[in-house]
């Protein structure tokens, strides 16, 4: 079983993008799968505005630099760096104030990142990040604790950025 996880590359990027990310799911067979949630004291609209303003990510998200980005819409590509690693990504699902999913690649590795916003009483929002990451020998290079730590840092940074945004304003003007 461990050999299977070590060598697992998952579906092709096209299948991963269309049949997985495009249908609101990650690759649950991937060697690395993680899910983290955080309740943010802000509406889904405020969280969405900050989360989808890719140009602002470097200002609030630890270790992230966006190199190239267009509109946040299905099929649109963006290039970025996470902790110095160059990534190429493409949006699969963009449901404003509800769900944002993209696929991404770096070297020979493929990922699906899924962000779900759930409105809660009192104008709060639960933000859940799910990710699957696959590629040969990945479990030897990168573990689930590191993936979870990146997600939790992203969620905490996002919450802090949303809190700094004045109520009633939009991060995108």
UniProtKB/TrEMBL annotation:
**Where does the source fall among the domains of life?**
Bacteria
Alphabetical list of InterPro entries matching this protein: Polyketide_cyclase/dehydratase (IPR019587), START-like_dom_sf (IPR023393)
> Hey, what's the signal peptide range on this chain?
none
The record's section on Pfam families has: Polyketide_cyc2
Write down what this protein is called: SRPBCC domain-containing protein
Q: Taxonomic lineage per UniProt?
A: Bacteria, Bacillati, Actinomycetota, Actinomycetes, Streptosporangiales
